[in-house]
Amino acid sequence: MAVKKKLLIIQDELGRYSEVFLYRMLRGFKHFDVEVLVGKHVNKSEYPFEGVKQWNGVANTLLRLVYYIRYKFFNYHGIATANLGNLISMINETDADLVCFQFAFIPEKLGRDVGKINKPFCIIHHGTDVNLARENKVYCLRLNLVWGLANKLFFVSNFLMNEAVKLGCPPHKAHVNYLGVPDFKPSYANVIPVTDVFRFVMVARQTPVKNHTNVIRAFAKANKESSANMQLVLIGGGELESEIRHQIKMLGLENHISLMGDLSNGRVVEEISKSHCLILASRIHLITGALYQEEALGLSILEGMILGKPIVASATGGIPEAVSNGLNGFLVDPLDVNGIKEAILEMVNYPEKALEMGQRGRKLARKLFNFKLQMRKFEQHFIAIVESHGS
Fold first, then answer.
1. I want to staple 144 with a disulfide (CB 3.0 to 4.6 A). Which of 168, 335, 356, 377 is the partner?
2. By C-alpha distance, which of 139, 299, 267, 162 is closest to 311?
3. Strands (E), 194-310
4. Was domain 197-368 assigned CATH 3.40.50.2000?
5. What are the sequence ranges of the domains in the chain?
6. pLDDT tens by residue, 179-194
7. What is the pLDDT of residues 273-289, one digit of tens each?
């Protein structure tokens, strides 16, 4: 039996959604033993990371809090300060064969010192780390330095990779690797809810880029025009929760829109499976005159697809790589409230068509965004890096 290589994954903070991805990722590798360094572990009860080799050797816990970084992704007054301490020496003292940074923030902060790492390293970019480079020239210059030193650079969509190349990312180092979603158990997949209520679900942080305001306005219009009994379920918390609650109250939709807050991933999957359609109409959100956020792809879209749900999504960022208009859902202009409304009504008025879209989406997700396939691709790249470095 071949000896497994050792992979060291480093990430600043684990939020609720990055925990989901990391938890799946760690369980998906076959040829690597994994260690993790992380600044903050948010949800230990839901993600104990049992059964994986730990950094500190203590049973039933993967993550050791080796440092804590407070990093505001969009700091307009320069790069946010972070005490990385002796991170380089800690990395070099491990017996890892490869280092993988989740997001580019930590290697960017290390800057030229990242070249002192005595083993090959790669970076997986998820979106916010590339967005910042559009506005902050210092950050962009440091990111280009790090890109030049890295062995390989991964992006979660073609859109994101192309944006990075425009900013100076070396094309020969850039690779697209979708996050992938597991093929959930049959009791969840392709479930057709038996109910007299047509149920929409939106899984998204309550932040400006996710465009809750326009989705709610569109739903209100559709609900007024349709005789169907409609419900919108909003999953996820965030900075705009009070504003969203106020908007729902002003529109008199308390009986039609439910706010469920942050849920475990198991509950999220359950709620999507009980719904007829998933919505994610993210917008291009300007933060300053030059800096804007755009959806790299949207993990909830992939989860909706694998569960056989038709999608109403915006034609922005990397979303069109997953959703084809009229095939497995509808692509809309996120600023066009009437356009979103029409897509909602199309789902409600033609449920058989919506079901067919969902089935096509599931087939596409199983083929293109299959979790095991994407993990194999990651591993193939990782093995190539290690072997190239060894030669």
1. 168
2. 299
3. 197-203, 229-235, 257-261, 277-280, 285-286, 292-293
4. yes
5. 5-179+370-390, 197-368
6. 888 887 655 555 566 6
7. 999 999 999 887 544 44
